[in-house]
Amino acid sequence: MSDTDSSVFESIRWLRRRLDDALVGGLDPKVWDNISSMRAGQNEYGYDPFGFEPEFLKYIYPVAERLYRHYFRVETFNIDNIPDDGPVLLIANHTGQIPIDGFLIGCALLFDRQPARMVRSMVEHWVATLPFASWFMARAGQVVGTRQNARILLGRGGCILVFPEGTRGVNKTYDRAYELARFGNGFMRLALETNTPIIPVGVVGGEEQLPTIWNFESFARLLGLPAFPITPTWPLLGPLGALPLPVKYRIHFGELMHFEGASDDEDRVIEEKVDQVKAAIRGLVQTGLRERKGVFF
């Protein structure tokens, strides 16, 4: 390596250190200490087997904290129901056209919980094919959604977030707001196989961020999308109309649930257990709707 190359690399490292110092200096010290001391299965170099690096969160924190605290003004309830360590599945309702609910649940466990826990979400397979996105998602702790990856994370004491409704929940029109769509059975089979407890999570606020009047299904199929929502602002106002409204989110964490049985039981048996989780989530959502005083406050 030439002297010129060495000088360039040294300059880049200096800029990186200055950026890191500036970022950390602007963070809430208590929150950052809570996050940076978090144990999430990382090795001596600071990474876990999937590439997650807790230090990387300092690049996300400034924007995430402002969205969480000031734009969506998230309020959490009974967040201490989540165990301090050990494997756990967070099972939540899915709402809002844009899946911001998962992002906010993850922020809640980093910003509002002592000690912090890293929520691992299962992302779609095609994300891994995108050069920058795949690297970013890995560093930020997200993992391609395969059963084997989930087993590895739970085996290492991970906290995994699952939305059993999938796109069925997130793409509802507003006339079906807060109605729970059909749940898949996969999360329950995984919980039984790995002997992992479940925390039901009820999210209130997401349905109003982009209230959908109509789903233009034929156009969505033409574009290869799961849905093409029509809202009072989208597509009328163009890209600006696709921004979520500054609704207030309320996230309710239920009590720990344990299930026993064979993971390969017939669907009827598994569905009975799934229905118990679904009923718990429905109760949390109904409590949230009943107790809130308004959509934006």
UniProtKB/TrEMBL annotation:
One of its GO terms (cellular component) is membrane. The keyword Transferase applies. Coiled coil: none annotated. It comes from the Bacteria. SMART domains: PlsC (SM00563). CDD domains: LPLAT_MGAT-like. Keywords: Acyltransferase, Transferase. Pfam families: Acyltransferase (PF01553). One of its GO terms (molecular function) is acyltransferase activity. This is Glycerol acyltransferase.
